[in-house]
Amino acid sequence: MRRLRPWLILTFALVTGGTAGVLALRYLRQYTPPLAAETRSGFVAVATRELPLGTLLESTDVRLIEWPGSIMPAGYVASTEAAVGRGLITGVQENEPLLESKLAPTGVGGGLPVLIDDGMRAVSVRVDDVVGVAGFVLPGTRVDVLLTMESQSGEPTTEVILQKVRTLAAGQEVQRDRDGKPRAVPVITVAVTPEQAETLALASSQGRIQLALRNALDTATVSTTGARMNSLLGRPAAPASSSPRRGVVVRPTGRDSAVVEVYKGGARTLLKF
C-alpha cells in the first residue's frame, strides 16, 4: 500500500481550513447588521429632580439622556421642547422618563385643572387632623365621606354618603380666628361628579363630615344602614309614631254587667259595669 506524501496531506489541510474560514467569515458578515442594530441608542427626556403632580415643566426640570438598546420606552419624549410647558398628571422621580401618559396635552397648562377628568368636578373641604385622618389623606388616595347630623326625630346619626372618592390635593389655606389672627387650616380637594358635589356641599353646611381612608385596591361599594345613638346604647329603635295608642273594646259578661277594656299608651285596664 502506497503511503501519501507529506505535501499532499499538508495541501489538503490548508484547503479544508481555508474553506472553513471563508464560510465562518461569510456567516459573521451576514449577522453583523442585526447585532449592530441591537446596540443602537436614542435620547429620552427625563426629570432632573422629583416633581409632584400638577407641575408645569420648565427647561430646568427636563434633560436628555442616551437610552441604550433598540427597545425604547413606550410613549417616550425625545426632546426637551416636547416636554417643557406641559403639566404633570402624575408625580415622577429624579431621572424617571417623561412619558406621554404622564403629561397633560400641550397648551392645557399645569396645576389642579389638568388632574380633573372629563365630567368630574374638584371640591375643596376644610378639615382638621381628625377629619383628614391625621395627615394620611394624600393626593391620589381614595376615601369615603361620612356625615354626622341629627335625623328628623332629633337623634344623632352617622351615615356614609359618598364612597371611593379620589383625592386630588392636600394643602392648607390661611384663615382668621376669632381674634383676627391668621391660622393655617388643612384643606382636602376631591374629585366628584356634579351630583356628588351638591351632596358634599350640603353635607358640609348641615352637619359634620369625616373622611375614612380606603385601601387603594379596594373598589367595592358597601351598603350600610348608618349608626344611630340608640343602637350605640343597645336600645331598640323608636316606634314609627310617638303618639300613644288608645282603644276601647266592650266585652259583655252577662245580662246585667259588662267589662270594658281600655288601652292607653300600651297599658290595658279593665272597667266592669
Folded structure, characterized:
The chain has 273 residues and is α+β, with helices and mostly antiparallel strands. It folds into 3 domains: 40-114, Type Iii Antifreeze Protein Isoform Hplc 12, CATH 3.90.1210; 116-232, no CATH class; 243-273, no CATH class. 18% of the residues lie in helices and 33% in strands. Strands 3, 4, 5, 6, 7 and 8 form a 6-stranded antiparallel β-sheet that branches. Strands 9-10-11 form a 3-stranded antiparallel β-sheet, with no helix packed on it. A two-stranded antiparallel sheet has the order 1-2.
Task: Tell me the layout of helices and strands.
Layout: H1 6-38, E1 41-47, E2 62-68, E3 121-126, E4 142-150, E5 156-176, E6 182-192, H2 194-206, E7 208-213, E8 227-228, H3 229-232, E9 246-252, E10 258-264, E11 267-272
Antiparallel strand pairs: 1-2, 3-6, 4-5, 4-7, 5-6, 5-8, 9-10, 10-11
**Mean of residue pLDDT?**
75
Give the overall silhouette. elongated
End-to-end distance: 155 Å
Uncertain stretches of 5 or more adjacent residues: 35-39, 173-177, 240-251
Main β-sheet, in a few words?
A: 6 strands, antiparallel
Q: Structural class of the helices, strands and pairings?
A: alpha+beta
Rounded to an integer, what's the Rg over CA atoms? 39 Å
Number of strands: 11
Order of secondary-structure elements: HEEEEEEHEEHEEE
By DSSP (H or I, 4+ residues per run), the number of helices equals 3
Whole-number total of structural domains = 3
Into which percentage range does the β-strand content fall?
A: 25-35%
Classify the helix fraction into a percent range.
10-25%
